[in-house]
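Quick note —
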Amino acid sequence: MKAGVLQILHTDGSDAEKYFVPGGFALSHENSVTDITCPEAVPLDDLDVGSITSAFSEAKKSYDSAEDGSEAKAEAQIDMEVNRAMAAALGTTIA
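Predicted structure written out below.
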């Protein structure tokens, strides 16, 4: 799975649960049950645009100052992409 919104639909008709996940794996079975493995899942209601924007800015600074081809640059790029995906999950765009 790519970073984004994971929505859990319940068969009893109750409201769907929405979480932001930074990535992971999903395996669907023949009986329509899906197993999901991800490093973390954060309820959308717990995300804060201000914190996401701040974290993105810090990641961008790290990216801009890191040496090309370095592990630090790759990690900063991942941080930027995850923060962009979190902002998009809340309907906000950051650049």
